[in-house]
Each structure stands twice: as C-alpha cells, then as structure tokens.
Write a structure and sequence with these properties.
- Helix content is 86%, strand content 0%.
- By secondary structure, the protein is mainly α.
- The longest helix has 33 residues.
- α2 runs parallel beside α5.
- It is globular, with a radius of gyration of 16 Å.
Length: 124
C-alpha cells in the first residue's frame, strides 16, 4: 500500500523527526557530560560515546522515516542521516567559526550518519 502524501506533510514529518533527533542527542550528550563529571571518563571513551550517540540517533530517525513512508525506506533513512549531518556541520561551523575542527572527522561522521540512517530505514 503506497501512501500518497503531499509535500507539506512530508516536510513537516521530516522536520519533526529532525527535532526529535536533536532533542534526543541533547539529552544523551547531557547524560554523557554528567558521566564525564561524575566518573572522569577519558577523552577516548567520550569520543566513542559521541560516535555511538550519532549512530543511535540517526538509526532511530531512519527507522521512523522508513516506517512512515513505506516505500524506498532506505532512501528516506539516508535522507534523515544526511540532513542530521548537514545540520550538525552547520552548527559546528557556527560554533567553531572555521573548518579546522570540522574537517578532521568530516567524512567519517558523514558515513556514520548516512549509513546508520539508511540501515534504520531498511530495517523498518
């Protein structure tokens, strides 16, 4: 069964998914900051946890998008991962005021976000 959805409802759904994704990211990063403060985690552990947060959140966004759309689920998951990454890069550029910090892990984070979003879409 294919659902015919108009453009505005799809755009609204995508924006809601991204908002939920970033709220979940914020909550998980705050939890990570609490754990860092409480347990004195090393930089390596914090980096691994941040990567895990990216993977979990984009996977869930792809899962939601794939369930809603019903067809071409992997493309919707890829779109969600790509949009999540795009917003992440824009915010990083604004905060860091340059490309130096962003360019170091650019392609790794791009592949992680898009790949886990696509996987979420395929599993849905």
């Amino acid at each position: 069964m294919l659902k015919k959805l108009n453009f505005s409802s799809r755009l609204t759904f995508i924006l809601k998914c991204l908002l939920i994704s970033y709220l979940l990211t914020t909550g998980l990063l705050l939890l990570l900051a609490l754990m860092l403060y409480r347990f004195g985690l090393s930089e390596k552990v914090v980096s691994i946890c941040i990567i895990g947060i990216y993977i979990i959140v984009t996977f869930l966004a792809g899962l939601l998008a794939g369930k809603r759309e019903g067809s071409r689920k992997f493309l919707w998951g890829l779109l969600m991962g790509g949009l999540y990454f795009l917003i992440l890069i824009v915010v990083s550029l604004i905060v860091n005021q340059g490309m130096q910090e962003v360019s170091r892990n650019f392609f790794t984070v791009l592949i992680l976000c898009c790949g886990s979003g696509m996987l979420g879409g395929m599993i849905s």
